[in-house]
Every structure is written in structure tokens, then in C-alpha cells.
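User: Okay, second chain of the day. Same drill as before: sequence in, C-alpha cells out.
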Amino acid sequence: MKIVVLAGGNSSERDVSLSSGGMIYRAFRDNGHQAILLDVYLGYDGETDGIFEQDTDWAAQVGAVGEECPDLESLKALRGEGEKGFFGPHVLEICQKADCVFLALHGANGEDGRIQACFDLLGIPYTGADFVGSCLAMDKGITKDLFRAYGIPTPRGFRQKLGESEPGDIPYPRIVKTSCGGSSIGVCIANDGSEYKKAMEEAFRYGDEVIVEEYIRGREFSVGVIDGKALPVIEMAPKEGFYDYRNKYQAGTTVETCPAQIPGEKSSRMQEIAERVFAILRLKSYARMDFIMGEDGEIYCLEANTLPGMTPTSLLPQEAAAAGMDFGQLCGEILKLVHNGR
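Assistant: Same drill. C-alpha cells below.
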């Protein structure tokens, strides 16, 4: 099968996307597919005829995710002179030649429904949620509104636009996060007014709306869902701090346990909520929901991820492994769902 693994982009999660894309590309090549790894933002400058018969040479350079977010300003200098728009040279042309595009994109312009809508108009099959589900899940403000409307337990909080006055009152400590971000980029814990001011300034660097929530002290979990069915629960226990960008992608910084060592009724409850969120947000194919369990045992759903990470330290592959599915089989199952209209 001719497969484009689409990665990179120009979001703050670019490096995570490239790491995911490299893993997926190698898995498909190892399983005999005519796969290529394509950077959606930088594109491809060579001859496109016969591209699926070639190896992607630069895939060997894709490695682990660094400790810091990428410098997106320097990325612009790599674009060709006069190149405009999001798609790099020949990206759409190559994607139209593929049997399927495996979306390994994370963050803005990849996980928010824009590419999905474009591909729908062009008749390009792709993995993951469609443009509606992607949009609903990417905007945490909309996600929170739907959680409350459908009775999904989630921390108290409010959303605030840049320049607006605070619309609610949440006690300290508070969690501050950008409304349309991922990988815990722009997420801070504020213990007082001074820290809160700095946290708001940091979060507004990544968008014009932020989410402010009560801080729930407890244990962090995640639950992947494939075709509407939940995988085993995984627990993430950072050795220092909270589950931030560094602790998510630097090997050895977080202890991950799957299946999570919690009572069966707690695991079942999280899996049930994850499946409900999958349906409420109109997701397709696969996704991952993040949770926290408070010290009192109460469970709260934090958000949904429509294109979960597939890096060497990512959670979904670990959950799939606990269910008896290796990385190549996981990629193959996701691909199969596209051709089954799921």
C-alpha cells in the first residue's frame, strides 16, 4: 500500500510530530508497505514520479524529542524563497497519489481540523478524527463545555480571552494552560497571584484564549480508545514536578505503569468515561483521554487527544502493547479503520 506519513508542520509540537512520524514510517516500511515520510511544512523538492518506491533518506535523522520546544522562527528560513501558505512544495500532489495519509501531526494546523477539512475536499483518505471531532477536541474551552453538558467529571474552571477580565473565581493553586495547545506546552501551576500573572503571560504566548482550572492533587492516568473501545489504563508518575513537556518525552523522567495498579472499579470507570468522551466529541479511529484521580479517589477527565503521540516514550503504544498489540500491529490497525470507514 502507498502510504504518506505526514509529520513536522509549524506548531510548537513539531519535534514530537517528527519523532512520531519516524516511528510510524519505519513500522510501515518494515511491514512491506511503500511508505514515505513527508514534512507537511517543508514539502518535497524532487521529482514526485516513483516517490513511493524510494526510501525517505532524512527519516534516519529523526530521533528523540529534545528538552525544549523547537525554534519556529528558524524554521521559516528553511522554506523556499516566496513560499506561502502552510503546505510545502508538492505535499498535496503526493498525498493525492497515496492510498492513505497517516497523520502524525500534533498541535495547531494538524490536529485542529484544518488539514482534515482540506483532505475531505480533495478526497484524500487519512487517519484519525475528521474535521469536526478534531476541532471540538483541540479547543479545550469547547471540550470543557461539552464535558459539563454531558456530565463528564472535569475540574472546575473557566476560559478567558486576551484582554478580558477574569470571568470566575478559582482558589489557588490554579492550573493555567493555553486553550488550543498540547504536550503540556504553556501549562503552569500557579500557587499565588504573582505566579498566576506569569503563568497567564506564558499561556497567552501560544494563543489568545487560556483555560484556568482548579489544581487537583493526585495521580495522572491516560486511556487510549481504538474504534470506540478503551485500552488498558496507564499511569504516569513523573519523578520530579508534573507531567510536563520534558517529563513526557525524555526517557527515564517518568515511571509509566500499564496496566495501572489501581482497583478494578477505578480502571473500569476511566475506561467507561474515555469511551463516552470518544462518542461525545464525535471522534473516529483512535484517540487518547487524559485523567487525574484526586487524593479522595474522585476521577476527573482533563482533555482528549485526537492524534496521540507515537514516539518512543508515548503512552498509546504502551497501552496497545499491554493489550497484546505491538507497534507495527497498532499502526496497521489504525490504517485498517480508515479503509473500513471507521
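DSSP finds eleven helices and 13 strands in the chain.

User: Thanks, on to the next one.
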